[in-house]
Design brief:
Low-confidence stretches: 1-15, 40-44
Number of strands: 9
CATH class: Alpha Beta
Helix content: 10-25%
Structural class: alpha/beta
Order of helices and strands: EEEEHEHHEHEEHEH
Number of helices: 6
CATH topology: Rossmann fold
Largest sheet: 9 strands, mixed
């Protein structure tokens, strides 16, 4: 962690902040979007509203591990901020640095970035004005693959911190369903991967949605994950839509209102 101060990232009409995860790297960072009226308090508080800590979402956009896509970043964080969440967008390692190596997922750079981001939010929850018990991971396409693999892969990730819940939008798969970096990623299909030994995984609720006519990531990836979660007895909701456009999450905004209701109903 670098401890460099956040700075304004230029969002119009509201507070937008940037927090770097590593010293000397400007490509891995968090963009922060806060509800209106939050933040700016004394002592470095980012997100206090009437003295009450806010729930938070950590958003991992898609982009096939080639880029961090913009359509699943700002538009999504704005929606969550409007709903009262402190929204953090993770700009994780992409391109050649995001390839799977001999160590597999345990040595996967984006996974290390996600772990670092979660650790940062937990360690600084008080200063950021968020409730560390109310952090939700939200992933799209490759970002959905990253979130699911981080939580469910049976890999030795040091100090694995689990979120309160997982919201997955048309998550990318592996093997023939890869959709990322133009090469197969066997053993990392989110619908086939083994589960972590941590018993807490069994209590991690999952909200999952996918359009049947998704032209980039096959619907079957989420259908297999739905079946896997059911077999494992993990609480989850799966919404299957007839039509959608990949990387255009609000083509049908129904999923978002239903996800908010689902999150509100969690204990």
């Amino acid at each position: 962690m670098c401890g460099r101060p956040w700075h304004h990232a230029g969002k119009k009409g509201g507070k937008a902040l940037k927090i770097y995860l590593y010293e000397g790297r400007n490509d891995v960072y968090l963009d922060v979007c806060l509800p209106c009226g939050a933040g700016g308090g004394r002592g470095g508080d980012l997100a206090r509203t009437a003295g009450r800590p806010l729930p938070a979402v950590l958003i991992c956009p898609g982009g096939g591990y080639r880029v961090v896509g913009s359509t699943e970043a700002g538009p999504v964080s704005d929606k969550f901020a409007d709903a009262g969440y402190a929204a953090f967008i993770l700009h994780y390692t992409v391109g050649d640095g995001a390839s799977f190596g001999a160590e597999g997922f345990a040595g996967f750079a984006p996974a290390a970035d996600l772990a670092a981001a979660l650790r940062l939010l937990h360690e600084n929850a008080g200063g950021y004005g968020i409730d560390a018990r109310e952090i939700v991971l939200v992933g799209f396409s490759a970002g959905g693959h990253l979130c699911a693999a981080y939580c469910f892969a049976d890999a030795p990730i040091p100090e694995r911190l689990l979120p309160k819940a997982l919201v997955l939008s048309y998550p990318m798969g592996g093997g023939e369903d890869s959709g990322g970096m133009g090469k197969a990623q066997p053993d990392y299909d989110v619908g086939r991967m083994p589960y972590a030994k941590d018993p807490a995984v069994k209590n991690l609720p999952v909200f999952l949605w996918h359009a049947k006519d998704d032209a980039v990531v096959p619907f079957e990836v989420s259908a297999r994950l739905d079946a896997k979660l059911a077999r494992e007895g993990i609480t989850h909701t799966f919404l299957a839509y007839e039509h959608g456009i990949h990387a255009r999450p609000f083509f049908d905004p129904d999923w978002f209102s239903r996800a908010l209701d689902w999150l509100a109903g969690l204990k």
